[in-house]
Amino acid sequence: MDQKFLAFGFLEYVVFLLSTTCHEAAHALVAKWGGDTTAFEGGQVSLNPLPHVRRELFGMVILPLVGILSGTGLIGYASAPYNPEWSIRFPKRAGLMSLAGPAANFAIAIVSGITMRIGLATGTFLPGAISTTNIVEPASAGFATGAATLLSVFFSLNLLLGCFNLLPIPPLDGFGVLGIFTDSQGAIRLLKLRMRMRGFGMMIGILISSYLLGYVYEPLLIKGVRLIYAFYRFR
């Protein structure tokens, strides 16, 4: 395993850690606004990764680092606590709480994309490949080199996280978003379905979601890169 591979793996992990922290903090903040202070009382309305890491040490630190060091790829997870009784009483608020995490990831992807577009317009960046590493490339050595790679990873990884978590399959956020479109009785049925799918059922849900992800993420990645390159004059 060469140093370049390890350096990029570490960069991916840092982006994952910051992006996941924003994702979970968004869940916690919107839940607090909606009347559920469970995550707030746990210190998770915070952009400090430590409260989130303390809750999911394995998913946020051990698992992703093992994936990077073993060469199998970055994989991880995190969570924010909530009150199930609150989610049944206020299913639309709970649905918005579920939506907040992926929305934070899409917001980060959009900001990264706009920044890359500005870099292209100013000549700081040049077009790169459609991948996690070089959607844009530096026009010169130095600071631009690191910035181009960092922005590319922020854009692609957050787009990936947003798409994956919005799939309406338990245990993903997209399943919780269905609460926006139902009432308390519907929320109870959704909660019972989630409870039935614990353990092995959750693993099946993750596998199905991983299979479906490519059909959503890859077209959006291509469209996103085209928007970043919009009106760019290739020389």
Overall description:
By secondary structure, the chain is mainly α. It has one domain. The chain is 71% helix and 3% strand. It has a two-stranded antiparallel ribbon. A hairpin with an 8-residue loop joins strand 1 and strand 2. The longest helix has 32 residues. The model has no long low-confidence stretch (mean pLDDT 90).
Provide the fold topology.
Blueprint lengths: L2 H32 L3 H4 L7 H7 L1 H14 L13 H6 L1 H32 L2 E3 L8 E3 L4 H24 L6 H5 L6 H13 L3 H29 L7
Antiparallel strand pairs: 1-2
Helix pairs in contact: 1-4, 1-6, 1-7, 3-4, 6-7, 6-10, 7-10
Order of helices and strands: HHHHHHEEHHHH
Widest beta sheet: strand line-up: 1-2
Percent of residues in β-strands:
under 5%
Could you list the spans in which at least 5 consecutive residues all have pLDDT below 50? Answer: none
Largest sheet: 2 strands, antiparallel
Query: What's the total helix number?
Result: 10
User: First CA to last CA: what distance?
Assistant: 36 Å
Mean pLDDT: 90
Query: What global shape is seen?
Result: globular
